[in-house]
Description:
Helix 5 (165-171) packs across helix 6 (183-190). It contains seven helices and ten strands. The protein is globular, with a radius of gyration of 18 Å. By secondary structure, it is an alpha/beta fold. The chain has a single domain, classed as UDP-N-acetylmuramoyl-L-alanine:D-glutamate ligase (3-Layer(aba) Sandwich), CATH 3.40.1190.20. The strands form two sheets. It has a six-stranded parallel beta sheet with strand order 5-4-1-8-9-10, sandwiched between helices.
Amino acid sequence: MIYTVTFNPALDYTVYLADFTPGKTNRTQREELLFGGKGINVSAVLTALGEPTVALGFVAGFTGEALANALTAHKIAHELITLPAGQTRINVKIKAGTESEINAAGPEVPAECVTQLLQKLDALKSGDTLVLAGSVPPSMPKDIYEKMICRVKGRSVRVVVDAERELLLRVLPHRPFLIKPNLRELCDAVGRELASHGEIFALLREMV
């Protein structure tokens, strides 16, 4: 079984315009409303490929209910924890020649809900895979990825991490099975631009 974790899922509201003028009323040509979040996207692809998966994470409010209903409608198995307050975020994407994004911060996640999520990891067993993907809400502890890796340590669970900056760097000592930084995320992690393939490969070897 492949379990994915999305701490800060979203409904992505995409609007398409012929052009966009700041400060003016703009009319859309069409709109899309899709569920999103890196871990949820992984579970969606796995489901389409016929691979068993369960999406874990947090939802809140009527937007969270809409997201959970969308996953059910797409036959994506999920065990989402409902937060006591707030709303699952809505990210707005404006496509008018170029693309602009407005990403919300997301709801506050209380400590008891973090504990519930950690307890769900106790069901993972040898041969399972845990995918930790995306950002975490500001209210969550910055070592949450490390805590989750430690929670499954010693059970032969493969851990895949798709994260940025400190979240990525802090998991490296725990030797995850796979990390997936893109070039921008690599540059952000080391605080400098990587100008050549040689520099990139050297940094990746250092990470390994």
